Protein backbone atom coordinates (compact mmCIF):
# COMPACT_ATOMS: atom_id res chain seq x y z
CA UNK A 1 0.00 0.00 0.00
CA UNK A 2 1.24 3.55 -0.73
CA UNK A 3 2.46 5.78 2.08
CA UNK A 4 1.31 9.37 1.81
CA UNK A 5 3.61 12.16 2.95
CA UNK A 6 1.45 15.10 1.84
CA UNK A 7 0.18 15.90 5.38
CA UNK A 8 3.78 16.18 6.60
CA UNK A 9 4.56 18.67 3.84
CA UNK A 10 1.42 20.76 4.27
CA UNK A 11 3.35 23.31 6.34
CA UNK A 12 6.45 24.86 4.85
CA UNK A 13 9.22 24.76 7.42
CA UNK A 14 12.86 23.80 7.73
CA UNK A 15 11.90 20.73 9.72
CA UNK A 16 9.55 19.27 7.09
CA UNK A 17 12.34 17.73 5.02
CA UNK A 18 14.03 16.32 8.14
CA UNK A 19 10.70 14.90 9.28
CA UNK A 20 10.29 13.10 5.97
CA UNK A 21 13.83 11.70 6.18
CA UNK A 22 13.18 10.39 9.68
CA UNK A 23 9.89 8.73 8.75
CA UNK A 24 10.21 4.98 9.26
CA UNK A 25 7.11 3.62 7.51
CA UNK A 26 7.69 3.26 3.80
CA UNK A 27 11.19 4.72 4.07
CA UNK A 28 14.50 3.71 2.52
CA UNK A 29 15.88 3.10 6.02
CA UNK A 30 13.27 0.41 6.63
CA UNK A 31 14.22 -1.32 3.37
CA UNK A 32 17.99 -1.44 3.91
CA UNK A 33 18.50 -1.34 7.68
CA UNK A 34 19.20 -5.08 7.95
CA UNK A 35 21.87 -4.98 5.22
CA UNK A 36 23.39 -1.87 6.83
CA UNK A 37 23.54 -3.57 10.24
CA UNK A 38 25.22 -6.66 8.76
CA UNK A 39 27.74 -4.53 6.85
CA UNK A 40 28.60 -2.46 9.93
CA UNK A 41 28.94 -5.60 12.06
CA UNK A 42 31.33 -7.20 9.56
CA UNK A 43 33.33 -3.98 9.29
CA UNK A 44 33.67 -3.69 13.07
CA UNK A 45 34.67 -7.36 13.40
CA UNK A 46 37.29 -7.02 10.66
CA UNK A 47 38.62 -3.82 12.20
CA UNK A 48 38.90 -5.39 15.66
CA UNK A 49 40.63 -8.49 14.26
CA UNK A 50 43.17 -6.29 12.46
CA UNK A 51 43.88 -4.07 15.46
CA UNK A 52 43.75 -6.69 18.23
CA UNK A 53 43.99 -10.20 16.83
CA UNK A 54 46.79 -9.91 14.26
CA UNK A 55 50.51 -9.87 14.88
CA UNK A 56 52.75 -7.26 13.25
CA UNK A 57 53.76 -9.68 10.50
CA UNK A 58 50.12 -10.62 9.85
CA UNK A 59 49.20 -6.94 9.69
CA UNK A 60 51.81 -6.41 6.96
CA UNK A 61 50.36 -9.29 4.94
CA UNK A 62 46.86 -7.89 5.46
CA UNK A 63 47.96 -4.45 4.24
CA UNK A 64 49.56 -6.01 1.14
CA UNK A 65 46.31 -7.83 0.33
CA UNK A 66 44.32 -4.62 0.78
CA UNK A 67 46.69 -2.66 -1.47
CA UNK A 68 46.60 -5.38 -4.11
CA UNK A 69 42.79 -5.30 -4.15
CA UNK A 70 42.82 -1.50 -4.29
CA UNK A 71 45.27 -1.43 -7.20
CA UNK A 72 43.24 -3.89 -9.24
CA UNK A 73 39.71 -2.79 -8.36
CA UNK A 74 39.45 -1.03 -11.72
CA UNK A 75 39.62 -4.37 -13.50
CA UNK A 76 36.04 -5.07 -12.48
CA UNK A 77 33.65 -2.62 -14.22
CA UNK A 78 31.56 -1.97 -11.12
CA UNK A 79 29.80 1.04 -12.68
CA UNK A 80 28.79 -0.99 -15.73
CA UNK A 81 27.62 -3.94 -13.63
CA UNK A 82 25.66 -1.69 -11.29
CA UNK A 83 24.07 0.12 -14.24
CA UNK A 84 23.05 -3.17 -15.85
CA UNK A 85 21.62 -4.42 -12.55
CA UNK A 86 19.62 -1.25 -11.97
CA UNK A 87 18.31 -1.39 -15.55
CA UNK A 88 17.13 -4.98 -15.13
CA UNK A 89 15.43 -4.22 -11.80
CA UNK A 90 13.79 -1.08 -13.19
CA UNK A 91 12.53 -2.92 -16.26
CA UNK A 92 11.11 -5.67 -14.08
CA UNK A 93 9.20 -3.32 -11.82
CA UNK A 94 8.06 -1.14 -14.71
CA UNK A 95 6.72 -4.29 -16.38
CA UNK A 96 4.77 -5.11 -13.21
CA UNK A 97 3.30 -1.60 -13.04
CA UNK A 98 2.44 -1.63 -16.76
CA UNK A 99 0.65 -4.97 -16.40
CA UNK A 100 -1.60 -3.93 -13.53
CA UNK A 101 -5.13 -4.06 -14.89
CA UNK A 102 -6.41 -0.78 -13.49
CA UNK A 103 -10.16 -1.00 -13.18
CA UNK A 104 -10.68 2.70 -14.01
CA UNK A 105 -10.36 2.25 -17.78
CA UNK A 106 -12.75 -0.67 -17.75
CA UNK A 107 -15.27 1.23 -15.63
CA UNK A 108 -15.18 4.23 -17.97
CA UNK A 109 -15.82 2.03 -21.04
CA UNK A 110 -18.70 0.17 -19.40
CA UNK A 111 -20.27 3.36 -18.03
CA UNK A 112 -20.20 5.11 -21.40
CA UNK A 113 -21.53 2.15 -23.39
CA UNK A 114 -24.34 1.26 -20.97
CA UNK A 115 -26.25 4.51 -20.73
CA UNK A 116 -29.23 4.76 -18.43
CA UNK A 117 -30.17 5.38 -14.81
CA UNK A 118 -32.83 2.72 -14.29
CA UNK A 119 -32.25 -0.06 -11.79
CA UNK A 120 -31.68 -2.70 -14.48
CA UNK A 121 -28.93 -0.71 -16.21
CA UNK A 122 -27.25 0.16 -12.92
CA UNK A 123 -27.31 -3.53 -11.97
CA UNK A 124 -25.51 -4.45 -15.20
CA UNK A 125 -22.85 -1.78 -14.68
CA UNK A 126 -22.19 -2.63 -11.05
CA UNK A 127 -22.03 -6.37 -11.54
CA UNK A 128 -19.74 -6.27 -14.58
CA UNK A 129 -17.30 -4.03 -12.73
CA UNK A 130 -17.68 -6.09 -9.54
CA UNK A 131 -16.81 -9.29 -11.38
CA UNK A 132 -13.65 -7.72 -12.81
CA UNK A 133 -12.70 -6.38 -9.36
CA UNK A 134 -13.20 -9.94 -8.14
CA UNK A 135 -10.74 -11.38 -10.65
CA UNK A 136 -8.20 -8.73 -9.62
CA UNK A 137 -8.66 -9.59 -5.95
CA UNK A 138 -8.26 -13.31 -6.67
CA UNK A 139 -5.11 -12.78 -8.75
CA UNK A 140 -3.60 -10.55 -6.06
CA UNK A 141 -4.45 -13.19 -3.44
CA UNK A 142 -2.37 -15.66 -5.45
CA UNK A 143 0.73 -13.45 -5.71
CA UNK A 144 0.66 -11.25 -2.61
CA UNK A 145 0.89 -12.64 0.95
CA UNK A 146 -0.58 -9.39 2.33
CA UNK A 147 -3.68 -9.64 0.14
CA UNK A 148 -3.94 -13.34 0.99
CA UNK A 149 -3.94 -12.48 4.70
CA UNK A 150 -6.62 -9.85 4.16
CA UNK A 151 -8.82 -12.15 2.06
CA UNK A 152 -7.91 -15.69 3.19
CA UNK A 153 -11.12 -17.36 1.98
CA UNK A 154 -13.94 -16.85 -0.48
CA UNK A 155 -16.18 -15.91 2.44
CA UNK A 156 -13.90 -12.95 3.15
CA UNK A 157 -14.46 -11.82 -0.46
CA UNK A 158 -18.18 -12.04 0.20
CA UNK A 159 -17.81 -9.82 3.26
CA UNK A 160 -15.78 -7.33 1.21
CA UNK A 161 -18.53 -7.15 -1.42
CA UNK A 162 -16.67 -8.81 -4.30
CA UNK A 163 -18.84 -11.93 -4.21
CA UNK A 164 -22.50 -12.59 -3.49
CA UNK A 165 -23.30 -15.45 -1.08
CA UNK A 166 -25.10 -17.42 -3.80
CA UNK A 167 -22.02 -17.18 -6.08
CA UNK A 168 -19.58 -18.84 -3.68
CA UNK A 169 -20.68 -22.35 -4.61
CA UNK A 170 -20.14 -21.58 -8.33
CA UNK A 171 -16.49 -20.54 -8.09
CA UNK A 172 -13.32 -22.12 -6.71
CA UNK A 173 -10.22 -20.62 -5.10
CA UNK A 174 -8.09 -20.55 -8.26
CA UNK A 175 -10.79 -20.28 -10.91
CA UNK A 176 -9.99 -16.78 -12.11
CA UNK A 177 -11.83 -17.21 -15.41
CA UNK A 178 -15.27 -17.74 -13.88
CA UNK A 179 -15.88 -14.14 -12.86
CA UNK A 180 -14.71 -12.94 -16.30
CA UNK A 181 -17.16 -15.38 -17.88
CA UNK A 182 -19.92 -13.88 -15.74
CA UNK A 183 -18.97 -10.37 -16.84
CA UNK A 184 -18.99 -11.40 -20.52
CA UNK A 185 -22.38 -13.08 -20.10
CA UNK A 186 -23.79 -9.93 -18.50
CA UNK A 187 -22.48 -7.82 -21.37
CA UNK A 188 -24.10 -10.20 -23.87
CA UNK A 189 -27.40 -10.06 -21.96
CA UNK A 190 -27.24 -6.26 -21.81
CA UNK A 191 -26.87 -6.20 -25.61
CA UNK A 192 -29.85 -8.56 -26.01
CA UNK A 193 -31.94 -6.21 -23.86
CA UNK A 194 -30.68 -3.20 -25.89
CA UNK A 195 -29.02 -1.65 -22.84
CA UNK A 196 -25.82 -1.77 -24.87
CA UNK A 197 -26.93 -0.07 -28.07
CA UNK A 198 -24.70 -1.60 -30.75
CA UNK A 199 -22.65 -4.65 -31.59
CA UNK A 200 -19.55 -2.47 -31.89
CA UNK A 201 -20.05 -1.25 -28.32
CA UNK A 202 -20.40 -4.86 -27.18
CA UNK A 203 -17.22 -5.79 -29.03
CA UNK A 204 -15.33 -2.91 -27.38
CA UNK A 205 -16.50 -4.06 -23.94
CA UNK A 206 -15.45 -7.64 -24.74
CA UNK A 207 -12.00 -6.41 -25.76
CA UNK A 208 -11.44 -4.33 -22.63
CA UNK A 209 -12.65 -7.20 -20.42
CA UNK A 210 -10.23 -9.56 -22.16
CA UNK A 211 -7.38 -7.05 -21.95
CA UNK A 212 -7.94 -6.56 -18.22
CA UNK A 213 -7.80 -10.33 -17.70
CA UNK A 214 -4.59 -10.70 -19.76
CA UNK A 215 -2.89 -7.86 -17.88
CA UNK A 216 -3.69 -9.45 -14.53
CA UNK A 217 -2.31 -12.80 -15.69
CA UNK A 218 0.97 -11.20 -16.79
CA UNK A 219 1.62 -10.28 -13.16
Automatic annotation (TrEMBL):
The keyword Transport applies. One of its GO terms (cellular component) is plasma membrane. Signal peptide: none annotated. Pfam families: Bestrophin. It is found in: Cell membrane; Membrane. It is a multi-pass membrane protein. The chain crosses the membrane at residues 36-54, 75-94. GO terms for molecular function: chloride channel activity. Keywords: Cell membrane, Chloride, Chloride channel, Ion channel, Ion transport, Membrane, Transmembrane, Transmembrane helix, Transport. InterPro entries: Bestrophin, Bestrophin-like. Its main location: membrane. Belongs to the anion channel-forming bestrophin (TC 1.A.46) family. Calcium-sensitive chloride channel subfamily. Forms chloride channels. This is Bestrophin homolog. It comes from Dracunculus medinensis. The lineage of its organism: Eukaryota, Metazoa, Ecdysozoa, Nematoda, Chromadorea.
